[in-house]
Amino acid sequence: MGYGQRGLSAGASAGRVRRETRTWAGLLALAAALAMAPRAQAQSDDALKRVNDLYADIKPNRRSDLVVLPALAKMTPPPEAVELVGRAILIPAKAASFAPAKAWAEAPPQKAVLESLAAVTKEDNFQSAMYFGQPYGVEGVPIELVKAELYSELGDPPTLANARFLYLRRLEWAASLAHVEATRLLAAGDADAAMKTMLNWLFFSRQIAERETLGEKRWGVKQVELALERLRDLAYTDFRAPTHGLDVVKIQEINKRLRDREGFLGLERLRLPRADRIAAEQLIGRVFVPKGNANPEAFGPMMAQVSTRDRPLRLFSESGRWTALAAQHAGWFETLDRLEKIANDWSRRWALEAFDPVLRTPTDFEKIDRVKYATIVAAMGDAKSLFDARQRLRAEAVGTRTALGMYGYFLKQKTFPPEGGLSAIRPEFVPLLENDPYNSGKRPLEFFVPIRDQVFGPRETPRPHTVRVFNDFGNVAVDISLGQDQFVLYSVGPDDSKGFAKEAAKDGGDYLIWPPMVSLYRQYLIDNGQMN
């Protein structure tokens, strides 16, 4: 289709060509500046080696990336209905749009990915398990993986603060695949295989949560959180089915794999990323006169490259803005001192108990001037989000083990424990009754059976318990009625206040564990004809 067909005049077309020519000329000039200004320092700095050395102790036969990524390279894109992980989690097997998703999951390329995930998550001992050990940049990465964009791109010159984790795009496909496959297996009557598929994905995601950059770690932690909830979702679907595919022994095996301190899950072994500080030190070395102030010739181009790594067409305009801001940046020594102070503050907070009042005060990162210390902001990002994510993971892990134990008890006894009877699942399904991570009084999770354990006045008619669910994948709250044919298990949540799960959300109100929020939200969508 020509320009005339789009309604553009010849003059307008010529004007646009001139503007594009100027833009590309500017970009080429800027690229030349980027290539020349930091070249000498790029050759001498050892930041990339220091970061990649963090993975040096992972032997080749224990590197999961060398197994999973070649399989990912041959994957075909997911159907539109499940291209987002949230959709893949929510879609029911009976939906018309699940048919192409099922066919996609059963195709050989996707089967190979599922097999690779199973292969790299067999070992439960974290000391001998496999880990994702791909180095950053192209050095040491097989050329076929670079061509498939299954690596971390650092730009030219290789700059850690400029990292784009291209491989995570394909891992999003793998996430959707794992959830679709779990749904397929459960619908086919193989609840055990469905749970194992999700466990494989959970433990692979846990490997990504061990990565040393904030971006990778946040992605991995979120996938672990979703996988834990999905395990409960699969168990809940089995619980509500006319016949149950899970049994006492299978529940015990799953909970054994989910053990925390001794197992691979090991949430208390999660640590803050170490690569981001090294990235900040590298960036400071690139844009400063050693022991002096910001070098305007290097500062503008490099900061523009970092700030527009996902929006390259804005590189030229951003360069001028950053060049103008160079004079406002703190000096070499002051910047490095502030960087150390921020890193030490985060490390000190990471070691504190969840209810320590220090955690409610602003971090040193939050208090900095974002222009005066722009290099730190650009390279480090705000690690505070990991603190909340870690606490959610703790609640998810404790909640999943407890909920599965309760389901195991139900499968064996054909009834629920009496009110306050969580201890009934110990030691058959859990070695000890764990405390609610959000409860400052160090009490277990809250448990009750609707109607059976509720108190009604002498003139009241017993009625179902109503829960308002705020789900990760929905923009509206939905009210769900729960009867005495199921139990409710919840954490008091971030506000540390017992509310009988009347308001269930992960970032406020009570933290509903069972029934899983995703299960209730899916059923709401089905009941309202929104899942076809």
Can you offer a commentary on this structure?
With 532 residues, the protein is mostly helical. Among the domains are: 48-268, no CATH class; 435-532, no CATH class. It contains 20 helices and 8 strands. A 3-stranded antiparallel beta sheet has the order 3-6-8. Strands 5-4-7 form a 3-stranded mixed beta sheet. Strand 4 and strand 5 form a beta hairpin. It is globular, with a radius of gyration of 26 Å. The protein starts with 9 loop residues before the first helix and ends in a 5-residue tail after the last helix. The relative contact order is 0.09.
Give the rounded overall mean pLDDT: 89
Q: Which residues sit in consecutive blocks of at least 5 with pLDDT less than 50?
A: 1-44
Q: How much helix, percentage-wise, in residues? A: 40-55%
Characterize the largest beta sheet: strand count, sense, and whether it forms a barrel: 3 strands, antiparallel
User: Which descriptor suits the 3D outline?
Assistant: globular
Portion of residues in beta strands equals 5-15%
Radius of gyration: 26 Å
Strand order of the largest sheet: 3-6-8
**Would you count the extended β strands for me?**
8
* Strand/helix succession: HHHHHHHHEEHHHHHHHHHHHEEEEEEH
Q: Structural class of the helices, strands and pairings?
A: mainly alpha
First-residue to last-residue Cα separation: 36 Å
Tally of contiguous helical segments:
20
Brief account:
With 532 residues, the protein is mostly helical.
